[in-house]
Inverse folding.
């Protein structure tokens, strides 16, 4: 372990992960406050409807969202190392154009489909207007350009601040809605405002940092011209978009399926359990977000990125095991305290889901290694196969076992994702000597 910390890249990963963790830790606690207020103020059915409304908007944005932050890091970070500001600007302009286009598609599609899906997912006619209002957040939810800019410019501290602001505003709005007796409408509107302000803050940070670095016109959207100057741009964004849309939509759409098959109350329990699960897996998520920019600066033909991945995976897996134990011991009293005893059914579900924590956390470097090696299509195949398998067993097990079946399916889906990603990663590692240097590939 002492030798690990002599690696500057490993230290940078931990430093940036600490920045993200400092914001997300407070954010997770504040999110629990918001959910607790909603759980106590609303009936289980209305609480489930609130969860479905938010999950629907998040799910639609995840489906249409391009991973533009990854594109900026992939092509922009090496460019800045070479002081090629024009290439970095092309990367940000192309990403911004994609964000605008995908956001418009998501907004139109999401609002057009919701009236037809509302009854199936548990949204009553009286709540449809508020649900449609929440859908207007889809364009800003899809935008990842400011995140990519800040990660490339190594301003993880700004991202950490933004990650704290949104849940803080959500918690404040939830407290006001609870104390003021504003009901379902109050929670929807205050959560809407919190999401909007928090996302706009990220754009402000990115624009200010670009101005400070004297990189003008980086937020002027463009598509065709920048793409022509960046070889492989469209292939990268389409492949990563489909792969990550599948993964990002995993939880929101799972919630929608549970709500559609078992009712809004079950959707509320699943939302509580998945929120705890996501919070327990955050340390690995922080490592992943800081791991990707660092590994993109390394030579995939050398052993350094692969050693870095093993060290990071082992560290994350250890954190996952620790968090699994914490969930098993403290999950029940915490849910009872925060949400009340009527929501204790979420702990039974959480116990099942927690089993997959070690697998999901320890396997986080695999996808980034495939991107580093230019094998993003292999990552897409792995995501697609895992999602297909998960969808099949989710529906089957819910029919057979009810809500517990959803938890078992969740574990199976996580394990399939890790396995299907590991296989091509091992193949790439064995053939790593044939891989070109990342910096040379990016400049091609």
């Amino acid at each position: 372990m002492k030798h690990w910390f002599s690696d500057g890249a490993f230290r940078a990963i931990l430093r940036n992960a600490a920045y993200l963790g400092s914001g997300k830790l407070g954010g997770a606690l504040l999110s629990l406050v918001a959910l607790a207020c909603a759980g106590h103020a609303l009936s289980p059915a209305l609480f489930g409807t609130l969860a479905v409304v938010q999950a629907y908007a998040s799910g639609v944005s995840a489906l249409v969202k391009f991973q533009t932050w990854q594109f900026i890091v992939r092509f922009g970070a090496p460019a800045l190392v070479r002081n090629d500001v024009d290439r970095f600007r092309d990367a940000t302009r192309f990403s911004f154009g994609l964000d605008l286009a995908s956001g418009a598609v998501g907004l139109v599609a999401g609002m057009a489909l919701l009236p037809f899906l509302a009854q199936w997912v548990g949204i009553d006619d009286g709540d449809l207007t508020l649900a449609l209002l929440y859908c207007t957040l889809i364009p800003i939810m899809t935008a990842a350009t400011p995140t990519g800019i800040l990660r490339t410019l190594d301003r993880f501290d700004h991202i950490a601040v933004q990650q704290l602001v949104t849940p803080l505003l959500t918690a404040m709005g939830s407290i006001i809605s609870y104390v003021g007796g504003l009901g379902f409408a109050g929670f929807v509107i205050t959560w809407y405002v919190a999401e909007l302000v928090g996302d706009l803050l990220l754009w402000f940070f990115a624009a200010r940092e670009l101005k400070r670095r004297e990189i003008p016109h980086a937020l002027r959207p463009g598509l065709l011209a920048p793409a022509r100057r960046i070889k492989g741009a469209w292939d990268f964004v389409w492949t990563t978009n489909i792969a990550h849309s599948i993964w990002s939509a995993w939880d929101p759409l799972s919630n929608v399926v549970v709500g559609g098959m078992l009712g809004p109350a079950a959707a509320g329990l699943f939302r509580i359990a998945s929120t705890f699960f996501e919070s327990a897996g955050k340390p690995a998520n922080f490592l992943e977000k800081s791991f990707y920019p660092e590994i993109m600066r390394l030579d995939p033909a050398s052993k350094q990125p692969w050693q870095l991945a093993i060290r990071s995976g082992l560290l994350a897996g250890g954190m996952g095991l620790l968090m699994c134990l914490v969930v098993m011991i403290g999950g029940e009293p915490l849910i009872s305290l925060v949400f009340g005893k009527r929501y204790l059914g979420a702990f039974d579900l959480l116990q099942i889901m927690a089993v997959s924590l070690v697998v999901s956390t320890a396997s986080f470097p695999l996808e980034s290694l495939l991107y580093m090696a230019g094998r993003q299509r292999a990552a897409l195949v792995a995501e697609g196969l895992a999602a297909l398998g998960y969808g099949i067993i989710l529906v089957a097990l819910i029919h057979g076992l009810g809500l517990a079946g959803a938890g078992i399916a969740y574990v199976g889906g996580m394990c399939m994702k890790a396995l299907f990603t590991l296989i091509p990663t091992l193949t790439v590692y064995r053939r790593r000597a044939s891989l070109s240097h990342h910096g040379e590939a990016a400049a091609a």
Q: What stands out?
A: Confidence is low (pLDDT under 50) at residues 437-444. DSSP finds 21 helices and no strands in the chain. Residues 85-121 form the longest helix (37 residues). The chain has one domain: 4-443.
